[in-house]
Amino acid sequence: MLQRIQTIFLALTVIGMGIFLAFPLWTKVAVEGEQRADLTAIKLTHQVNAVQSNVQPVYYLIILAILVAAVAVYAILQYKNRVLQSALCAVNSILMTIIMGLVIYFTFYKTAKLFDPNLPGSYEIGFYGLVGAMLANVFANRFIRKDEREVQQSKRFR
After folding, report:
1. Which of 37, 44, 80, 91 is the most buried (most CB within 10 A)?
2. Which helix (H) or strand (E) holds 93?
3. 24: exposed, middle or buried (C-beta count within 10 Å: 0-12, 13-18, 19+)?
4. How many angstroms separate the CA atoms of 101 and 105, rounded?
């Protein structure tokens, strides 16, 4: 049944990944204001001055985010097979953990060498979209397992 609560949480996972793709993830501005670093799901941009900037593509973040959204949509459509749905949520958890690890790697290690190592930068709405998607995926998996337990218990009573 598509009207179950886990469908809503899986849809929130897809929406969270859309926010992750559409908005910036992290920003760091130098104290002088001349240098700036921005991380999106597409690229890491280091603005050295008004004329010069370095751009490093991070397309694998896009690929992983689209893969997470696609797996969540497929999991929504597998409402008759709760075991498969739960396994797909577990795969999504692993993929989102990889994405989170890559984002943290870029924000703490890759950009710390660029300028002002003591300045941490700030996370933007795209990062919080990823966090929201992770939480929604965890709740979806929890409700899928709860439904499976209820079905197994009702079969046992018959």
Report:
1. 37
2. helix 82-105
3. middle
4. 6
Tell me, what DSSP letter sits at residue 113?
Answer: T
In 3D, which of 78, 85, 92 has the Cα closest to residue 134?
Answer: 92
- Which pTM value belongs to this model? 0.88
What is residue 58's DSSP assignment?
-
How many Å apart are CA 2 and CA 78, to the nearest integer?
9
The three-state secondary structure class of 88 is helix
